[in-house]
Known about the structure:
Elements: E1 40-43, E2 50-57, E3 76-82, E4 86-95, H1 121-145, H2 174-184, E5 189-190, H3 200-207, H4 212-223, H5 226-229, E6 234-239, H6 240-252, E7 262-265, E8 268-273, E9 276-281, H7 282-291, E10 304-308, E11 312-316, E12 326-330, E13 335-348, E14 355-357
Parallel strand pairs: 1-11, 5-14, 6-9
Antiparallel strand pairs: 2-3, 4-13, 6-10, 7-8, 8-9, 10-14, 11-13, 12-13
Helix pairs in contact: 4-6
Amino acid sequence: MSSTGLNFSALTPSNGALQSLSELLFSKVLGEERLAQVFNVIFGAEHGKKVGFIGEFGLVGKAAQGCEPTYNNSQIETSEKTWDLGEWGVYEKICYHDLIGTLAQVAMRRGSKIADLTGTEYIDDIVYPRLELAIYKMLMRFAWFGDKNADNVADGGIITNGVDPEFFSVTDGFWKRFFAIASADSMRRVNIAANAEATFAAQKSAILENGVASGILDNLIMGASADLRQGENQVIFVTQSLKDALSRDIRNNNKGSELQWRAIFDGITESQYDGIRLVAMPLWDSIIQAYESTGTAWNKPHRAVYTTTNNLLVGIDNYTDFAELNVFFDEKSELNLLKSKGALGTLVAQDNMVQVAY
């Protein structure tokens, strides 16, 4: 039986260095407290519930009319969309027998209680926090790349063959919504020719050609709606590949000073371009390269979207947190079970506040 948990194949139980599980070092992943820097999290969202958005007044103000003026009935612009939440579930199991002879054995109970790992250092300090953080990373995958109609390349979809499409089909994410916006209004899209290249190598080299990356960003900004150009909390999100190409393009062509990038949290960096906050999202590259590949080329590996953080809404059904992780021991099967469930969905508040490049 193969269990969820730490992969001990590269660890020696008695190597003279690791005496305790707590001595292991971990790689950091995304946490909920950081999500607000990339989109607007709405707790307590309900599937099928309508969400109203308030815009601006219409035209007001005319030449003065003296006594007994005529009063206008200008209205505030409004719009409405509906939450479409998809239910997700995480179900993992751990069998104590898989841990015998590994480093985790020092944290196990003895005798008749050996199978019960709840409350041990292995569950509490190793598995639980790592799985909890993996669930938050799952949120990012669904929020950006979710597609209720996800399918493998062999079946006409974009998901890499051999990857289960159900890892993406919980809900429609922002990229599916961005593609729909650009399809409905071609003015909302900037084409990235490098994406159409037939091989990984050609896709990489084409984006590095002189003037390509900076041209994409310039066209993205200039093509945006006037409403977006005046919006609060403007941001341009780009793939790491486009960030690297842009930095190189600016440096090689002496277009002002080099971009100054600042780390905001694990792997995600930000700078300024033409006075607009610019955020590089290497998580996008990781997902595209691992899960959206034909085997010879990636699906749109270079991407950017110009919008506002307030315009991107992620709805969570819970009222206080994204996920509650339950850990319990089943006496009959002698398995340690980890379970979490919830529902989430995405909304783009105003389509005209999006300008996308792919």
